[in-house]
């Protein structure tokens, strides 16, 4: 059985490009293409697609209004197709909050190099979306679940010596938000790799910074890692944890993709294994594939204590499952429980806060 896809975009050229690319895949089939959400609404009723691709900005009814109504009345997997602009990235992040499964950037209309790679990316996103748990996306879309910030650690030693290292992919933007919202302002420094293209991570970091007690920013090279701060890997660079004398620092690398990803979770986790050892706490959240599984196992061998999000609360239970299978996980828990468990572990193990 092929996965049935409905393409919604006001550009006839983009509609035909996406249709052609998706139909090249043996397991995917475009059953219809709509120029606006009003026509799309009728086509959804008639064609019963498995996955939608939805243009972020459209006439008649914008993509966000349509998405919000869709998730309320007929929840289904949606992959947003977004422009690489600051406005486009902010709208895309809002779409993920409303329940979209994932997003891709618009294909370049010059049909030349990069098109095959783009075809593979959008096909993978559609396949992942078809398997995604819509209930988890809907839960995270409800604004009431902001959660209380957890109590302060009140131990400067924990805050300055320990580190929290996080990796995520599909569904991760909302999972990371949920985790960071509960972090107190004196929590240890946090390094995060979320699979995301360039141009979106800065908006993502700014959005989180406006919501959280802690400071959140896109990582730059050579910055000292401070308590109460989270550093997010830029969309086109690997983020690594480094050392400079007695301090932890962020490092950025332009090396090749790892596990087809740049930034890669394995790259971050490996650097934490080498440079933080038992002072690191690893957290692997929702996502497709196995990126981070081998690195988390190496972190654990180096003495870290690691957590994985459980299947029930994951949009896609891929990366956490692989991390468990690789032997890198100490505890598996629901997303809402993870922040408290991490902070409790930090408090109870504060005597281990020694330089490696």
The first-to-last residue Cα distance is: 53 Å
Based on secondary structure, the structural category is alpha/beta
Oligomer: single chain
Tell me what the CATH architecture of the largest domain is: 3-Layer(aba) Sandwich
The H-level CATH homologous superfamily of the largest domain, spelled out, is Methylesterase CheB, C-terminal domain
Largest sheet: 7 strands, parallel
Task: Output the strand order for the largest sheet.
Answer: 8-9-7-6-12-13-14
Q: Which range does the strand content fall in?
A: 15-25%
CATH level 1 name of the largest domain: Alpha Beta
Number of strands: 14
Order of helices and strands: EHEHEHEHEHHHEHEHEEEEHEHEHEH
Number of DSSP helices? 13
Q: Any idea of the CATH topology of the largest domain?
A: Rossmann fold
What is the global morphology?
elongated
Concise description?
38% of the residues lie in helices and 21% in strands.
Secondary-structure topology with pairs:
Elements: E1 3-8, H1 12-23, E2 28-34, H2 37-47, E3 51-55, H3 63-73, E4 78-82, H4 86-98, E5 102-105, H5 115-131, H6 134-141, H7 156-161, E6 163-168, H8 172-181, E7 189-194, H9 201-211, E8 215-218, E9 229-232, E10 238-244, E11 247-253, H10 265-275, E12 280-284, H11 293-301, E13 305-309, H12 319-325, E14 331-333, H13 338-348
Parallel strand pairs: 1-2, 1-3, 3-4, 4-5, 6-7, 6-12, 7-9, 8-9, 12-13, 13-14
Antiparallel strand pairs: 10-11
Helix pairs in contact: 3-4, 10-11, 11-12
């Amino acid at each position: 059985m092929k996965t049935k896809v409905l393409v919604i975009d006001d550009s006839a050229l983009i509609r035909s490009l996406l249709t052609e690319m998706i139909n090249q895949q043996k397991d995917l089939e475009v059953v219809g293409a709509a120029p606006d959400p009003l026509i799309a609404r009728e086509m959804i009723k008639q064609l019963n697609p498995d996955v939608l691709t939805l243009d972020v900005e459209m006439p008649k009814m914008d993509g966000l209004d349509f998405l919000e109504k869709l998730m309320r009345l007929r929840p289904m997997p949606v992959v947003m197709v977004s422009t690489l602009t600051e406005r486009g990235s902010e709208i895309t992040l809002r779409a993920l909050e409303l329940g979209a499964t994932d997003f891709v950037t618009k294909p370049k209309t010059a049909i030349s190099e990069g098109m095959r790679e783009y075809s593979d990316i959008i096909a993978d996103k559609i396949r992942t979306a078809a398997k995604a748990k819509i209930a988890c996306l809907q839960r995270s879309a409800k604004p009431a679940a902001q959660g209380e910030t957890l109590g302060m650690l009140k131990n400067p030693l924990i805050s300055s010596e320990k580190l929290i290292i996080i990796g995520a992919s599909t569904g991760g933007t909302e999972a990371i938000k949920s985790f960071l919202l509960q972090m107190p302002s004196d929590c240890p420094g946090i390094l995060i790799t979320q699979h995301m293209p360039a141009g979106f991570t800065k908006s993502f970091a700014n959005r989180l910074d406006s919501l959280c007690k802690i400071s959140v920013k896109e990582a730059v090279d050579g910055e000292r890692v401070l308590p109460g701060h989270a550093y997010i890997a830029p969309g086109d660079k690997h983020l690594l944890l480094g050392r400079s004398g007695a301090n932890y620092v962020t490092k950025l690398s332009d090396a090749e993709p790892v596990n087809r990803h740049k930034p890669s979770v394995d790259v971050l986790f490996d650097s934490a294994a080498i440079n933080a050892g038992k002072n690191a706490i690893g957290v692997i959240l929702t996502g497709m594939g196995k990126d981070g599984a081998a690195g988390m196992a190496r972190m654990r061998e180096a003495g870290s204590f690691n957590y994985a999000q459980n299947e029930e609360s994951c949009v896609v239970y891929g990366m956490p499952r692989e991390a468990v299978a690789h032997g890198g996980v100490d505890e598996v828990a629901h997303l809402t429980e993870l922040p408290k468990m991490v902070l409790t572990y930090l408090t109870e193990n504060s005597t281990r806060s020694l330089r490696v």
